[in-house]
Amino acid sequence: MVPKTRLLFSILLLYILCVHAQNLQTYIVQLHPQGLTKSSFSSRLHWHLSFLEKTISNNEDSSSRLLYSYSSAIEGFAAQLSPVELETLQKSHEVISIRPDRRLDIYTTYSYKFLGLNPTGGGAWLNSRFGRGAIIGVLDTGVWPESPSFDDQGMPPIPQKWRGTCQEGQDFSASNCNRKLIGARFFSKGHRVASLSSSPDIVSEYVSPRDSHGHGTHTASTAAGARVPMASVLGNGAGEARGMAPGAHVAIYKVCWFSGCYSSDILAAMDVAIRDGVDVLSLSLGGFPVPIYEDTIAIGSFRAMEHGISVICAAGNNGPIQYSVANEAPWIATIGASTLDRRFPAIVQLGNRKFLYGESMYPGNRVQSARKELELVYLTGGNQGSEFCMRGSLPKAKVRGKMVVCKRGVNGRAEKGQIVKEAGGAAMILVNTEINLEEDSVDVHVLPATLIGFDESIHLESYMNSTRRPRAKIIFGGTVIGKSRAPAVAQFSSRGPSFTDPAILKPDMIAPGVNIIAAWPQNLGPSGLPEDSRRVNFTVMSGTSMACPHASGIAALIHSAHPKWTPAAIKSALMTTADMMDHLGKPIMDGDKPAELFAIGAGHVNPERAINPGLIYNIQPNDYITHLCTLGYTRSEIFAITHRNTSCHDILHQNRGFSLNYPSFSVIFRQGETRKIIKRRLTNVGSPNSIYSVEVVAPEGVNVRVIPQHLIYKHTNQTLSYRVWFILRKRTRNGTTRYAQGRLTWVNRGNSFHRVQSPISVTWASKK
């Protein structure tokens, strides 16, 4: 009886612990950095623990509830609290704010050539020594250190300022780091406690900096991967792989796991990265927009910016919906996604001899069976999701040996192919819906397959309805470069205006993010599916996650060439030299129409010009505080972001008519307003004795006047100011909101290279 009694007691204890754990939630507690009781404790950790000791009602060890103690990104800690404990802690005068932990999500062989980077012909790479000496911190899913993209041959010594470490863990030792991959850490406490209460741990992951997913390996190599000759994805996209800053060092901060990326883990990584000594932080992750004072990435990045660190973030993959852009804080560089002029054609030849254009990275040229004509089948009806090729929805008797048509959506693109294969299907045509339109993100499918656009899907449906036995085959065309217009805006790239701060145009710019080939771990097949037994060193991915590290790497090049520049100066260089035209000299397109500023911001990154911008718009931390005052933020909200006591009444009184010295213009006319005056300052980072003249393309319905019309610089680092008057030409209808756009460019009269361009966005807003 005694063993049974012990078993029952153990089960009861486990049940009590589980119930207790389910009542706890992770919160990020932000404290006043000059808290009254702080000096009474021997360490910051003991001070943070004291709040839990006073809050937890039972005899439980307070340290068991503490997840992280923060000091650099914010002053505070992350801990698990019950509703009663939360209410008690909120009453403390030393607590600024308490935020629940948020779950966020993670949003190359050719792209460097597409951007004009040349390893032999001078320009940005040679001027920056390929990013030599710069350190890029990547917050993502970890890294596969054995990838050839992280080989350190030819790399310089680790910078003396580096204070990071190579954290050991499962299948990861200190010897996995080198002069390229100089640091690696992992942060899992927020993920771990959230996963215990939300879902069983059925996914095997490395409890270490090692990458289980591939996303982090891909983004890190895009930013700063070493030169890898003869790289390809099963023969597709063959060429020499290089990151944007192949001479830069990489530090990995693993914050994303199977259940997502938790803000407590992200903040802990930013907290450590600031102390480690990174120069650039690259975050290909985010969520939906929230006010800046509630956004842990925005708060952590403000502190990083104060330490001279450029923070580059993905804009999000929720396009083309307006107001969907994430990571909107003005001290963050927010990056949307664009296309390349590289295609992977996989043409569908129908039984009636007509052709439908599609794309795929399936290595069809090597597989004889891939070129067979097959019977087409498209299953609809029922509630199992057969039109989307959901698991368990495809009867083997109906699909065996056939080419299956699958609608895009609900489950993953490559996953649909695996489901078709398991059901006995021989091939797949993946069709875009009205949501995806003509977007062409390709995959390395596990069976012969192609993706066709929405327009082509209508032709496919018409053909299938016209005959009793529709048939088709896929003709794989390999890799084609330079035959299509590019860059263009990716359909999925999140759009502005900014939800929380419409006075700042977001996204800031776009960069390559569609069908990007970069490093891949050896524990996964190129499709990323667990069933895929193929192994490759590189694969293809799409998303603003891929655009972000392009910009991060270019920021590292600029930092290496100009190590004393502020993050604002680096972002200004990226924005004012961006391209508004594609490689054919025509406007960048968004689908079938010219792109609006809420899709492209300042335009498409151009590293060759960004390394030498001529003039820059600089911003100091105090300027951001004044800007936050103009948003109507309260003293406590601004303190939560900046750790500075401010009187907005005094600040705004001293800075009448203030406008942040941003490299773009976002002008909002509310009902009854007819004119706006905006002041800007430009600093000469080019040659002395330079004269710049202004050129304006005025937005429709607006007169634009600039005074002075010439900026005459006698010295390098000299700063001159100008004012812009925006005057309405005519009244707009009441109760409507509409937009117009233009641009303002300062042109160096001594050379045609320096053109410092700023987009102008004008909004007519109805009275709220």
Automatic annotation (TrEMBL):
Residue span, PA domain: 374-455
Annotated Inhibitor I9 domain residues: 26-104
GO molecular function: serine-type endopeptidase activity
Domain Peptidase S8/S53: 131-602
InterPro entries in the cross-refs: PA_dom_sf (IPR046450), PA_domain (IPR003137), Peptidase_S8/S53_dom (IPR000209), Peptidase_S8/S53_dom_sf (IPR036852), Peptidase_S8_Ser-AS (IPR023828), Peptidase_S8_subtilisin-rel (IPR015500), Peptidases_S8_3 (IPR034197), S8pro/Inhibitor_I9 (IPR010259)
Localisation: Secreted
Protein name (Swiss-Prot/TrEMBL): Subtilisin-like protease SBT1.2
